[in-house]
Amino acid sequence: MFCNLTRWLISRAEDRGKEMPRFAERHAARCEACREYALFAASLSSRLSGETPAFLAKSPDSPLDPAAWAAEGAGRGTGAPFRRRFVLHPFPTAAVVLVVAASALVLFLVVRREPALTSAEKLAVIASLKSVVAAPAEFSLAVAEVGSPLAKERQILERSVVSAVEYLQTRLNIRIERKETPKSL
Amino acid sequence: MIDPGRIEQKTDEELAREARAGSRRSFEELALRYKRRLFAYFRPRLGSDQDAEDLVQETFLKLYRNIHNYDPAHRFSTWLYTSANRLAISSYRRKRTTAGRLGAEFAGDMENLAVQAAGETRSTGLWDAAGTLGGNQYRVLWLRYGEDLSIEEIAASIGKSRLAVRLLLHRARTNLMKRVGPAPGRAEAERETAAVGETPLG
C-alpha cells in the first residue's frame, strides 16, 4: 500500500517539478522497487527526449498534399482576422423570441388604436365636456354647505358630556354646575 | 513576402500567425515540422501506417481550413494536437465500426507489436515500448515528453482534467517500467540513494 502511495507521490512530484515529499523519500530509501521507480521516473524525461529524433527518423516521410490545401484555400477567405464565433443557443433564443412575441401581442391588444371620430361625434363630445365644465358653480355651493368636521366633533363631544353629567346627577342625587364658560375652539 | 532563408528559424507561433494572414509557405513549413510527429502520435493506436498517414493529411487539411481560428495567445502545438485528437476520435469510431471485418488482421498487428515490445524493447527504444501501452497512456507520454507540453496543455488537448492526465502519466510510467525494466546505470544512482537513506532522517 505504501509502495503505491509512494509511487503516486513520486509521479506527482515529477509532474509538478517539485521535490518528493519526505515520506516518499524515506520509503524509497528503504524500498528497492520504489527507489527504482523514482530513478526511472526521473530519467524518463531525458531518455525519451533523447530518443525522440531517432524515433521520428524511423517514421515514413510521406509527402504532404498541398494541392488539397490549394483547393481548400480557394474556398476560404485568406487572412481573415481571428474572431470568436457568435453562437445562438437554442433554448435561450427560443425563450427570448417567445417573450418578445407575447409582449407584442399584449401591446397590440391593449394599446390598440380606436377608429377616428366623425364630425358629429366630435360635436357630441364637446357638448358633453361643456356640461361637465358648467357644473362647478353648483358644486361650490354644495361644498359651502358642508360644515366643518371639527365643529361637528365638538358638538358630539358636548352632547356626550351633558348626557354623562345628567346620568351622574340622577344616580348620585347630586347637582353638578359649570364653573366657567367653555373656551371657544 | 516571406524570406525563405529565415522561415526555418521562425517559431511555430510566428509561422502560424503568417499562415493565418494567408501565407501558404508558412503553413507548409509548419506541416513539414509536424508531419512526422503527428504520424508518431497516431500510429500506435491506429495500427497501420496507411491509416496514420491518412489521418495526418486529414489533420493538416483541417488545420489549413481553420487556421483563421488559431488564437496566437496559445501555443501552436496545443492547438494542433487538440484538432488532431478530435479527428483521431472520429477515426477510431469509424475504425470500431469496421472492426468486425478487420478484427483478426488488427489483432494480429497488435500481437506482433506486443511481441516486438516484449522481446526487443532494449534494442528498439523506449518510444517503441511506449507505443504498446494503452492509447491514452501513449498519447499523454508523447505530449509530455515528445512535445514538452505542460499538464494543463495536455488536459486541454485531449479534453480531460489535469488529475486525469496526471493519473494517465503515472500509469504510463509504471507500465513502461514493467516493460523495459529499471533505468540503466541505476547501480550507481542506487548507491547514492542508499547513502542518503543512511542519514538520520532516512
Describe this structure in words.
- The complex is a heterodimer of chains A (185) and B (202).
- By secondary structure, chain A is mainly α.
- Chain A has a domain at 2-51.
- Helix content of chain A is 71%, strand content 0%.
- Chain A contains 8 helices and no strands.
- In chain A, helix 1 crosses helix 3 (32-57) and helix 2 crosses helix 3.
- Chain A is elongated.
- Chain B is mainly α.
- Chain B folds into 2 domains: 1-97, RNA polymerase sigma factor, region 2, helix turn helix motif (Rna Polymerase Sigma Factor, Chain: A, Orthogonal Bundle), CATH 1.10.1740; 104-180, Orthogonal Bundle (Arc Repressor Mutant, subunit A), CATH 1.10.10.10.
- Helices cover 76% and strands 0% of the residues of chain B.
- Chain B has helices spanning 12-20, 24-46, 49-65, 76-97, 99-124, 126-130, 135-146, 151-158, 162-180, 186-197.
- The N and C termini of chain B lie far apart (64 Å).
- Classes of the chains: A mainly alpha (185), B mainly alpha (202).
Describe the structure concisely for a colleague.
The complex is a heterodimer of chains A (185) and B (202). With 185 residues, chain A is mainly α.
Number of strands of chain A: 0
Q: Going by CATH, what is the homologous superfamily of the largest domain in chain B? A: RNA polymerase sigma factor, region 2, helix turn helix motif
Low-confidence stretches of chain B: 100-108, 114-123, 195-202
Average pLDDT of chain A? 79
**What is the fold named in CATH at topology level of the largest domain in chain B?**
Rna Polymerase Sigma Factor, Chain: A
Radius of gyration of chain A equals 51 Å
Assembly type of the chains comes to heterodimer
Unreliable stretches of chain A (pLDDT < 50, length at least 5) are 77-82
Name of the top-level CATH class of the largest domain in chain B: Mainly Alpha
